Amino acid sequence: MRITVRDIQKMKEDREPIVMLTAYDATSARLSEAAGVPMLLVGDTLGMVIQGHEVPIPVTLDHIIYHASIVTRVTNKALVVGDMPFMSYHVSVEQALTNAGRLVQESGVSAIKMEGGESLAETINRVVDAGIPVIGHIGLMPQSVYKVGGFRVQGRDLETAQQLLRDAQAVQEAGAFAIVLESVPALLARLITERLHIPTIGIGAGADCDGQVQVFHDILGLFEEFVPRHTKQYA
Q1: By the 8 A CB rule, do 83 and 112 touch?
Q2: Would you say 112 and 135 are in contact if contact means Cβ atoms under 8 Å apart?
Q3: What is the average pLDDT across 99-120?
Q4: Most buried of 2, 10, 70, 183, CB within 10 angstroms?
Q5: What per-residue confidence (pLDDT) applies to 228?
Q6: Average pLDDT rounded to a whole number, residues 80-88
Q7: Active-site residue, from 16, 118, 182, 225
């Protein structure tokens, strides 16, 4: 039986560290589940580590559905999350509902992930109301890499830090069951984690989040084009 969103939330309540890894194919999915990883993300990072792009922008919904179908096919315990790729949920709430439904129905994932804070709250709320669990994602949002001028830490000044606090609260109130904090100063990530009752999953956000997510290829030294400073290579 698969781990559920409630199981993930209980891990925060029990102060049990939450581990999340990306998986894009049968091998990475099987190895991760065998290691006991409770949550697998079929992320749009596949655009870089699998497809060879410099950014995740070229990844399409069909790409995510294809890879997510593989991951759900070869696993039976981990909660599998599918990334909603660039421009698959930005045009309208109706577009987001349609594409989120496709991702769940056609790939078998148990939840989806979307990037955005206050401006995305209505969309998250509608998708959750439709019965689809959502993980939020704030801080550095790779789908906005062109807008922010690269992969930069977010929330370093008072104004942007306050906005991230508002974003986190809005995502929680919209119904997301967890939230990814990417490239956020450790003290800010700790404050957000303390304020929210939903789990925070950090990546480059310090050690005080409720969990951590890493890219499978990064921690095994399989992708050398760009190695994040927050990544520990185990092999």
Answers
A1: yes
A2: yes
A3: 98
A4: 183
A5: 66
A6: 97
A7: 182
Q: Is residue 182 among the annotated active site residues? A: yes
Structure tokens at 210: 């409720």
CB 172 within 8 A of CB 178: no
Compute the distance between CA of residue 98 and CA of residue 61 in angstroms, rounded to an integer.
Answer: 11
**What pLDDT does residue 145 have?**
73
Q: Quote the tokens at residue 192.
A: 């957000």
SS (H, E, C) the chain: CCCCHHHHHHHHHCCCCEEEEECCCHHHHHHHHHCCCCEEEECCCHHHHCCCCCCCCCCCHHHHHHHHHHHHHHCCCCEEEEECCCCCCCCCHHHHHHHHHHHHHHHCCCEEECCECHHHHHHHHHHHHCCCCEEEEEECCHHHHHHHCCCCCCCCCHHHHHHHHHHHHHHHHHCCCEEEEECCCHHHHHHHHHHCCCCEEEECCCCCCCEEEECHHHHCCCCCCCCCCCCCCCC
Closest CA to 187 of 155, 211, 232: 155
